[in-house]
């Protein structure tokens, strides 16, 4: 199923959101996450000084909850805007996100890359990252699996990325008539805006594959 859309409203939403998303991500990373880390450090200090076993166990539970919250906020920050994208490139950014994703959802993501990575523009890199991100989130929500794979194939004139799971799959016709169709349409629209293509295939009890092809400008 080729995911293309001529929906101008969808294009406008995608293009207008990124700057605000970047601002929110920086706020999460630089302020909120730091405050949470400070609170966790304080909880650990309080725990070390408590003599009553019940209260100490309670403080330990709260510290664990704070640690999980910090991981979730860190993942959310990367979901909103991956800082490594502009500094380390698309493959490294996806690997970094996949690691956080695994720590949060317990789904092992194997990331492979073949061929020499080429330089992509910021809009192209971000669009490809967003599609990988959306595909992984859908896996966590619907696939009912504990592992998935992202494969990069770098050619001279294009890069192909496949996000594949072996979960329970779905009927594509039914999904396109449901609320999940908005996210699927957004993946196709993001690729269309940067001159790429996005295809989705799924089979019940066999899994789902999202495949994108993005031309590389020489």
From TrEMBL:
Catalytic activity: ATP + protein L-histidine = ADP + protein N-phospho-L-histidine
SMART domains: HATPase_c
EC id: 2.7.13.3
Matching InterPro entries: HATPase_C_sf (IPR036890), HATPase_dom (IPR003594), His_kinase_dom (IPR005467), Sensor_HK_TwoCompSys (IPR050482), Sig_transdc_His_kin-like_C (IPR004358)
Coiled-coil ranges per UniProt: none
Pfam families noted in UniProt: HATPase_c
Enzyme class: transferase
PROSITE patterns in the cross-refs: HIS_KIN
Keywords of the record: ATP-binding, Kinase, Nucleotide-binding, Transferase, Two-component regulatory system
SUPFAM superfamilies: ATPase domain of HSP90 chaperone/DNA topoisomerase II/histidine kinase
Residue span(s) of domain Histidine kinase: 27-218
This protein's name: histidine kinase
Organism: Thalassobacillus devorans
């Amino acid at each position: 199923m080729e995911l293309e859309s001529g929906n101008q409203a969808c294009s406008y939403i995608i293009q207008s959101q990124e700057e605000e998303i970047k601002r929110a991500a920086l706020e999460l990373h630089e302020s909120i996450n730091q405050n949470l880390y400070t609170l966790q450090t304080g909880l650990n200090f309080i725990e070390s000084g408590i003599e009553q076993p019940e209260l100490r166990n309670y403080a330990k539970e709260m510290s664990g909850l704070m640690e999980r919250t910090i991981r979730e906020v860190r993942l959310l920050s990367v979901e909103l805007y991956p800082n490594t994208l502009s500094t380390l490139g698309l493959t490294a950014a996806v690997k970094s996100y996949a690691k956080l994703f695994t720590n949060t959802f317990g789904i092992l993501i194997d990331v492979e890359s073949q061929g020499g990575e080429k330089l992509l523009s910021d809009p192209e890199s971000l669009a490809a990252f967003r599609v990988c991100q959306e595909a992984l989130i859908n896996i966590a929500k619907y696939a009912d699996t504990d592992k998935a794979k992202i494969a990069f194939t770098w050619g001279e004139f294009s890069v192909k990325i496949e996000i594949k799971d072996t979960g329970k799959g779905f009927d594509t016709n039914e999904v396109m008539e449901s609320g999940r169709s908005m996210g699927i349409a957004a993946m196709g629209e993001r690729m269309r805006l940067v001159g790429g293509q996005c295809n989705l295939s799924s089979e019940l009890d066999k899994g789902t594959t999202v495949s994108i092809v993005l031309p590389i400008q020489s």
